[in-house]
Amino acid sequence: MAVLNKEYNKFDKEIKLNDSRKESLKKSRKELRKKIKKWFKENKPNEIKPKFGSQGSFEMNTTVNPIVVKDDEGNSLKKYDLDDGVYFIYKNEEDTKQSINTWHDWIFKATENHTGKDSIRKTTCVRVVFANGHHIDLPIYYKEDGVIELAHKSKGWLESDPKEFYEWFNDKKKTRSRLEAIVRCLKAWKNFRETNNTNLNLPSGFELTILATNNYVEADNLDEAFRETVKAIDAELNRYNGFKCYRPTTPSNEDVFENYSETRKSNFLNTLRSLKNDCIKASEESNFKIASEILRNNQFGIRFPLGEDKDEKFKSNSLKKSLGAAMVKPKPYGY
Ligand SMILES: [Mg+2]
């Protein structure tokens, strides 16, 4: 039984967004906010002014460094995904609630030519894509009397509260010491599997975050905690009528898996099953290198470090020996 705790922790360090990258993404977000505010000042001076609120993985410390991919011209792209909510807040009767399409359109226009690339109109947001591959999603909200609604282009106005979600997660984290790391590992797993097979379309980071939180298993090392949590997610989803993922916050009781096609569902269950089986296989392997290769080749890619070409048994013997040596009491002075 090779415990890959050291390897998992190294992997987590590798995939975790570091402070300098975080700062540069924040700077990019700040510039975009400035541009949008300016556009409204110049073009819609009598309309509600937009306010902004960060949301998503950035607020939960679960953003991961994406696997670097090349575009057609051979440029390296890092596809970081940021979410920045745009809020139109009703204050008095001069304020007009615009239609969903109008606000989407204005945000689209406000971000036009910001990066030299066209913004993308999506159903739940306007996406601004940058030359180095990262993008900022701008979901649009309207707030009146404390109620927040998301401007959803196909479903209409949907009651929603992104802050509530990240606060829910950050609260759960307090009693689940390895949850953050497990979510990052799951997101890095999704990234690797989808890079190898672009048809996979695994659940979003948001959905994986809910699954990991609800099925979290505590353990005293990350290897075991990750494996046991994956096993618990797999067991839960394969239960009769168990393929569900409820949003824990407003609009609660919404099953975010509801609109999954049969193909998407079985793709996810099969890919998850393969992750679970490899985690078990690696844990049953006594050689660290071989155990790490199982996860590296099929689940996480080369960002997962190679273990030493040593057996667990050998290691524990030598550990015992060194502990034994340390326990020999030094002779007092004078002898
Ligand atoms: Mg996004």
Structural summary, described in words:
The chain is an alpha+beta fold. It folds into two domains: 159 residues, Orthogonal Bundle (Poly(a)-polymerase, middle domain), CATH 1.10.1410; 144 residues, Beta Polymerase, domain 2. Helices cover 47% and strands 13% of the residues. It has ten helices and ten strands. The strands form two sheets. Strands 1, 4, 5, 6, 7, 8, 9 and 10 form an eight-stranded mixed β-sheet that branches. Helix 1 crosses helix 5, helix 7 packs antiparallel against helix 8 and helix 8 runs antiparallel to helix 9. The protein is globular and about 75 Å long. The protein binds magnesium ion. The site of magnesium ion has 3 residues, from strand 4.
**CATH arch. level architecture of the largest domain:** Orthogonal Bundle
Number of DSSP strand runs: 10
The arrangement of helices and strands along the chain is HHEEEEHEEEEEEHHHHHHH
**Sheet of most strands:** 8 strands, mixed
How many domains make up the 3D coordinates? 2
Strand content: 5-15%
Average pLDDT, all residues: 92
